[in-house]
Amino acid sequence: MARGSVLVIAPHPDDETFGCGGTIATLAASGMDVYVELVVQHGINTGGPATAQVAANRGMEFALACGKLGVSDFHVMIEEGDHRDTLHTQAARMVESIEYGSPLSIDRVRPQLVLLPARGAFHQDHQVVHQAAFAACRHRGAGHHTPAVILGYQCPEDSWSSQIEQATATLDVTEHYGQKQAAVACYQHQTKPDPHLRSRTAIERADAVQGAAIGVPYAESFVTYRTDLRFIAEAAEARELVCENT
Ligand SMILES: [Zn+2]
């Protein structure tokens, strides 16, 4: 039986991996069900020329990466679209999908933890997704699920943001870092040569810096938006049950 669930909101294919792939792999390996809601699978090719094949490639890369990370299930909210218009004109629909409309909505998955793009993101479409997901995580009253912990992940380009936020929560992802590296390698169309921020080595260096802050090889850090401490009590209870059963 799964020990709770996690919902990751990714604006585009690759954000879940570049932003928090090590955390996804670590939590999935711990026995939690990790679900990824991909907002738009657009046809923009960051690493080369746009072609009709790009959207399909990005979808395939996303599915492969989720497999490497141990994701339980994923869902694409908007299959096709130009993200430069789509996300800004569909914010209300996005909120409803994350709340209850998607097969992986908050009400269906009932996650203890939601990982969303941090508010101070560089990309405007990440900012829009942050606002929608943050709104969907509010307490909506009886009959609706309220996630106990809300954390914002930061993507490579966020280091060039005029409103970058201080990361306040950290997870050692060293044990499962190989899975993140394998997932990053799935995104051939989205990575660039070193020393670009989206290069494999730049991503590893950034995770190594986060790791050094807590004395481990690799870590990922997050901005905290909600930490309901009953989450810790529930985890302790779950551990007690496991101990009693063994
Ligand atoms: Zn993105």
UniProtKB/TrEMBL annotation:
Q: Which InterPro entries match?
A: GlcNAc_PI_deacetylase-related, LmbE-like_dom_sf
Pfam families tied to this protein = PIG-L
Q: Does the keyword Zinc apply?
A: yes
Q: Which UniProt keywords apply?
A: Zinc
Any idea what this protein is called? PIG-L deacetylase family protein
